[in-house]
Amino acid sequence: MTAYVNGVPIADDGDDAKFAAIHELLRQRAAETGFLDPSAIDDAIVDVAIEKLLAHEVQVPTPGDEECRRYYEAHRAEFRSGDLVHARHILFQVTPSVNITVIRARAEQALSELLAEPERFAEMARELSNCPSGEQGGNLGQTGRGDMVPEFEDALFRIDALGILPHLVKTRFGFHIVSVDRSIPGVDIPFEEVREQIGETLCAVVEERALRQYIAILAGRAELVGVEIDSADTPMVQ
């Protein structure tokens, strides 16, 4: 079904219809406010006009030092350099053809044995692991933040993570028995060195929120047929 924005047809369907409707709302607003010649049809010209419109009407305040400092203090882990661990693992891989309950039971049994006899880790990794690292006793070498999938990394870099972890680590690949053999804490990056980065991050968050609100206001003023966009009744600033 063809959708319409203030009587202008939008040919796309599904999610594309929503995107096209938003683009049309912005095009019409750009023409309404003088940023675009209403007769313009060139996509590049329209897009430039929309960018000018948004720069004018969706203004984002620049975060101050105090706001940036609060973000820094609340996210200190993001601003550390060089956190490293030396780790090993044994992977019990989960694939569509395996019984997850059985695989987990095998992993739990192996973990129980290793907690009682940790010196057998390399032996059992070679015997049981579905990861190529099993041939090296499960050794993953030196690992930094961002090197592994998030759920595995969370386990490696826990404050209390040292030795064989007393629980399985589940990832998209399966169940892991993990041993953190050595942890090398990183160094805090001074606030002054990341102040600009934090400011850009906060600006991006606020800008995204402001843009959603702006589009909702445009949608609230528009006549939409065949497409739904979250709308708001807040008056448009002229």
Description:
This protein is an alpha+beta fold and 238 residues long. The chain folds into 2 domains: 3-64 and 192-225, no CATH class; 83-185, Chitinase A, domain 3 (Roll). It contains 7 helices and 10 strands. Strands 4, 5, 6, 7 and 8 form a 5-stranded antiparallel beta sheet that branches. Strands 2-1-10 form a 3-stranded antiparallel beta sheet, with helices on one face. Helix 3 (65-74) crosses helix 7 (191-221). It is elongated. The two termini are 34 Å apart. The model has no long low-confidence stretch (mean pLDDT 89).
Strand tally, please? 10
Q: Please report the number of helical segments.
A: 7
Weakly predicted, low-confidence segments: none
Helix content: 40-55%
The appropriate CATH architecture of the largest domain is Roll
Q: Which CATH C-level class of the largest domain is it?
A: Alpha Beta
Backbone structural class:
alpha+beta
| Mean pLDDT metric | 89
N-to-C span: 34 Å
Please render the helix and strand layout as text.
Elements: E1 3-5, E2 8-10, H1 14-32, H2 43-57, H3 65-74, E3 80-81, E4 84-93, H4 100-116, H5 121-128, E5 139-144, H6 150-156, E6 163-164, E7 169-171, E8 174-184, E9 187-188, H7 191-221, E10 224-225
Antiparallel strand pairs: 1-2, 1-10, 3-9, 4-5, 4-8, 6-8, 7-8
Can you summarize this structure?
With 238 residues, the chain is α+β, with helices and mostly antiparallel strands. It has helices at 14-32, 43-57, 65-74, 100-116, 121-128, 150-156, 191-221, and strands spanning 3-5, 8-10, 80-81, 84-93, 139-144, 163-164, 169-171, 174-184, 187-188, 224-225. A hairpin with a 2-residue loop joins strand 1 and strand 2.
